[in-house]
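**Protein record**
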Amino acid sequence: MKKYFEHKLQNLINVSRIIAIHYFEFDRHFRTKKETHNFWEMVYVDKGSLICTANEETVPLSEWELLFHKPMEHHALAADGNETPRVYILCFSCRSEAMRFFDGKRLKADPTCIKMIYSLLSEGKKTFQIPISDPNSKKMEQLEHPSLGGEQMIKNYLEIFLISLLRAQTETERGNEIFLRQKDYARKPIRDVIEVLRGGIYRSLTIDDICAATSYGRAYLFRVFKAGTDQTIMEYYLSLKIERAKQLLVENELTVKEISSLLAFNEANYFSKTFKRVTGLTPTEYRQKQTDII
């Protein structure tokens, strides 16, 4: 009998609940009070402009722009007083790790995204009584005769919409360097650190410099780098410097002191002792040996 391999499907985004689908036509002087809740809220300006508040920050939104409010973020919105805005608001629960990308994100919707938003709204109208211009509405009532599978369609449309936004913001010609496969994700911090170390080979980098450049915490970097390379970060950094010193000793006529200074060692004596500890030879002995070989 022919055997088949079954692939377990992985979910990047899993929306568990829909709380509200609103479509507002605000008065140009309209404003809401600040509120907070334990679910995500997406605000999309279909027409006109809007002023949003996220915690203490004011975020203006223009036509076809959208903004995400994360759970428990204090927020409010207001018309700018110039025109009557049309606003689409979607509230939902999602605990997927990938949602962290949307924290405070303000994005411009392209035609494909706008089409998806309209599809979400259309499916919502076939399933729930969608409140029009009623900001006080806290619960959507299901229609007496909703379309078959409407709730699942809303869930699927929303998940596809969010993944499409993630792709548009993170895909590059080399693939996605933010949302990686699990086996690649474990190596990414190591690659990031090594890239910083290679770029700072003529400097004297500190752990704080490396953490700032990679946006990882000290304890986390220490752990994953040691586990992945069997070296500490500074041991690896030193080995890169010594390898470069070998090249300089053979390919240039720089003195040992000049090479030491170029590679940001504090003292030539310390450089020589370190070089001998790693290679078994002093810099002068190494240069002579390579010269004899050539």
Observations:
- Strands lie at 15-25, 40-47, 50-54, 57-61, 65-69, 75-79, 86-94, 106-108, 171-172, 175-176.
- The chain has a mean pLDDT of 86.
- The chain has ten helices and ten strands.
